[in-house]
Amino acid sequence: MDPHDALGALEAFTGGLERLIDVAEVNGRLFLNNVSLGIYGDAVRSPGYRDAKMRTLLETAEKVLGPSAEVPALRLVDDIGREHQHLAVVLVSNNPYTLDRPLMPGARPALDSGRLGIIVLDAPGAAPRPMGAAPHSPGRAWSAPRLDVSALTPVHAGIGGEAIDLSPPLHFAIRPRALRVRISPRHLGMPPSAQLSPPRQTRPLPEG
């Protein structure tokens, strides 16, 4: 949809064009946008989240990322084989978000790539490096058709902004072109970022 022409989107019901897009799932539960674990997964459980999302998220981040914080016991292995055992943030999306366009945050250039978008951020000081090991970024972003996350207890998650507990292990997967949608013939059916550059499949997040 073109957000500047919401009324024009109604043409999808008459002379609309049909497209097939991906859907994603976690433990068999479908989602269209993303699943958040860690900071956001805890924040959406707060009674004040609906009224003050940003303040609640910042307060939760302070608790999770503070010097005495206890991070959720989540574990996963990234695309280069590095194990993450103390994660502050895990975001799994139905198709990758663009990360190299600061003026267009939260856009997914495609919804039919057949891949999950995965962003992880380690908790500060959670992964001490062996002596002599090269430093690495505390965060990473990549894409993949599936992802497994293990935990010892039920995991607090946010799915489309709704709080839910997921029983481990968590199995994420993409269902390519599983959903039929209709769009107005005068809309592009893609966000502006899709016209600028394709999403990067793998890139480290900036340090700091």
Question: What can you tell me about this protein's structure?
Answer:
There is one protein chain. Helix content is 11%, strand content 38%. It has helices at 12-15, 39-43, 53-65, and strands at residues 17-26, 29-31, 34-38, 74-77, 83-84, 87-94, 116-122, 139-144, 146-151, 155-159, 162-166, 170-183, 202-204. The strands form two sheets. The chain has a seven-stranded antiparallel β-sheet with strand order 11-10-3-6-7-8-13. It has a six-stranded antiparallel β-sheet with strand order 2-1-12-9-4-5. The chain has one domain (31-129, 136-174, 194-204): Sandwich (Tumour Suppressor Smad4). It has 208 residues and is mainly β. It has three helices and 13 strands.
Write the layout of secondary structure elements.
Blueprint (H helix, E strand, L loop, with lengths): L11 H4 L1 E10 L2 E3 L2 E5 H5 L9 H13 L8 E4 L5 E2 L2 E8 L21 E7 L16 E6 L1 E6 L3 E5 L2 E5 L3 E14 L18 E3 L4
Antiparallel strand pairs: 1-2, 1-12, 3-6, 3-10, 4-5, 4-9, 6-7, 7-8, 8-13, 9-12, 10-11
Shape: elongated
Stretches with pLDDT under 50, minimum 5 residues: 197-208
Radius of gyration: 18 Å
> What is the tally of beta strands?
13
Indicate how many domains the architecture comprises: 1
